[in-house]
Amino acid sequence: MQAANKHHYLPVFYLKQWALQPGGRVVEFSRPFGPEVKPRRVHPSGTGYVNRLYASEVAEVGAWEMERDFFSPVDSRAADAMRRLISGAVLSDAERQAWATFVVSLLCRMPEDVPLVKEMRKQVILMFAPAFRRAYDASRPAEETRTFDQLTSEVMETAPDRALRTLEKIITNERLIDILCRMKWAVTPLSSGNELLTSDRPATYTKVLNADESHFVLPIGPEHLFIAANNSGMLKRIAAMPKLGTMANQKAVEQASKLVYGSSERQLRFVQNRMGRDKEPQLMRRLLALQAAQAPAYLEVMESIPLDSFLEDQLDAKAALSRSAASSFPTKACPSSVRNSWV
Length: 343
Hints:
Elements lengths: L1 H4 E3 L3 H4 L10 E5 L7 E5 L6 E3 L8 H28 L5 H13 L7 H27 L8 H10 L1 H13 L2 H9 L1 E6 L8 E2 L4 E2 L9 E5 L4 E6 L2 H8 L4 H11 L5 E3 L5 H7 L8 H22 L2 H6 L4 H8 L11 H4 L4
Antiparallel strand pairs: 1-4, 2-3, 2-10, 5-9, 6-10, 7-8, 8-9
C-alpha cells in the first residue's frame, strides 16, 4: 500500500540518469526551511513523488489505477525510447509516439498541475450548466424531485475523480503528440565539465509548438540534452550554441517549483542563485486561462442550438453535464479559430 500511494510525477527511470553518486543516488536540491538551498543524496525512487497525488475524496481506487494503468505504461515505453535516443538509434514511429507522449506528460503531471486540471473540469461544468438548464426545465419528469442546481452539485462532487480522465486526454492529445512527432529530433552530448541539471519543471519550450521557430528542450541526463525543432536549421542553431548547457541549466533551475536535481553538489551556488526565480505560466495554467477566455463563445454556440434538438435526444441533464465535462471543449459547432488555438 505504501508503494501504491507513491505517485511519481518525475519517473524513477528519468531521475536514474543522474544517479552517479555511491549507492545509485541523485543529489536533490530544495529549500526545506527557508531561502537557503540544501542538497541531499537520495535514491531516485525516494523523490519526485507525492503521496496520493491523484487521489480524491470520491474514488481512492481511481488514483491507484491512474498510476498503475496509465502513467506506468507511459513511463515504461518512454524509458525504452530514451535509451535508444541516447544510443543514437533511429526510433520507430511507435517509439517516437511513446517519447512524445512522455514529453507531454511532463508538462501537466506535476503536483501543482493536478489541482488545476480539477479546476478546469469544474469550470467546464459551470460553463455548460446554463445551456442545459433550459432543456432540463422543459423536459423535467414529473417524478423528478431534484432541481437542476442539485443535479449540478452532484456532478461537481465527482469532478475531482473525473478530472483524472481529463488529464489522460490532455496527455494523449493526438494533435499535440503529432506536432512533436513531426519535429526534427536530436540528442546533443555535452562534456562532463558542464553537467546538466533537471528539475520538477524540466522542459523548456516555446508557447506555440507549430510555428517555424518553435522548439523544445529537455535534459535527459547530466551529459545529454534532447532537442526538438520544426526545421533542421533551428535544430542545428540550438545544438551549436556555445553555452547551451549553461542556458539549459538556467531555464530548468529558474522555472523549478520546489526541486532541482543533479549528479553532484558542485552547482549548489548556481542553484541557490537561480532556483524558482523565473516561473513562467506552465501549460495547465495557460489552458485554464484559455478555457475561461473562450467560455462565452462556446456558451453562445450551445445556447444557439434549438431547444427541440435537446428534447429530441431526451438528454438526461446530469449525464449531459458529465459528458460535456469529459473534455475541455466540444469540437462540433465551434468556430475553427477557437478550436485551433489549443497551444
